[in-house]
């Protein structure tokens, strides 16, 4: 059992955290060694409703890392907390897998530097869904042949940022493949502001927010007499877990920070 990856999850009571707890507990070769929460210090997770695990809850990440000495931290909390947890993990010899987005450039640079100095892998994964990563990669491939593209991303109405991180990342990846282009009619005018969506180097991006949605995106490429649509739907948070598992394995073999799951799959 010495080869088991010892994992700590921060944010276990959250929607993503609950799925990640199940994942780690059910995956051979992984062990849920402890969790980090902001409540219930030194209780067992099984003291809380809906959990069976005897993993101990810590409110202090330092105490958790120095006592438990895990291999990997999976953080599914908030951007501010995710950054602090990642930094504390790296300073204590633990490899972070961070599922929150919204880090500043300075914070990212700092984590990159800490990762390198400590020769410890870090993965920051704005989207864990492998299908969504492939959608971005396929879109980048298609952009070589279709220069007119619009992105429609659709999320639940509790989402605070628009466009989504995945939508933005898709546009950036497409930008790497195609020359800048002003799309649509050169004289087009919006009679309702925002109707043509956001503009990223000419790529139009539209954000739909509705109850009932989870995370969905279509990338539409238009060409002479043809339309190519690349589409991905996350129907529930289980869709993110194969990516979490992949990241836990991959971070063990990294010595630096990797931003984006697309950079660890072929
Ligand atoms: P959620 O249900 O609100 O869960 C967040 C959890 O984090 C809550 O249990 C919260 O505790 C806990 N938390 C907040 N601050 C904390 C702190 N200082 N220390 C310890 N725990 C803390 O949200 P979710 O839907 O699970 O999403 C969690 C994060 O993952 C979000 O940042 C979201 O954007 C991100 N996410 C990433 C992906 C991806 O593919 N990368 C996919 C979906 C979501 P309280 O209940 O006490 O507030």
Automatic annotation (TrEMBL):
- CDD domains of this UniProt entry? DHDPR_N
**What interactions and quaternary structure are annotated?**
Homotetramer.
Where this protein primarily resides, as one coarse class? cytoplasm
Q: Where is the Dihydrodipicolinate reductase N-terminal domain?
A: 5-128
Occurrences of domain Dihydrodipicolinate reductase C-terminal (ranges): 131-264
Kindly identify the residues recorded as the active site.
155 (proton donor/acceptor), 159 (proton donor)
Amino acid composition bias (Basic and acidic residues), ranges on this chain: 175-191
Q: Which GO terms describe its molecular function?
A: 4-hydroxy-tetrahydrodipicolinate reductase
Positions with a binding annotation for (S)-2,3,4,5-tetrahydrodipicolinate? 156, 165-166
* Organism, as annotated: Jeotgalibacillus haloalkalitolerans
- Keywords, comma-separated and alphabetical: Amino-acid biosynthesis, Cytoplasm, Diaminopimelate biosynthesis, Lysine biosynthesis, NAD, NADP, Oxidoreductase
Membrane-spanning ranges? none
**Where are the annotated segments for Disordered?**
175-198
Q: Which family is this sequence assigned to?
A: Belongs to the DapB family.
Against InterPro entries, the record matches this protein to: DapB_C, DapB_N, DapB_N_CS, DHDPR_bac, NAD(P)-bd_dom_sf
Broad class of enzyme this protein falls into: oxidoreductase
Q: What is this protein called?
A: 4-hydroxy-tetrahydrodipicolinate reductase
Q: Name one Pfam family in it.
A: DapB_N
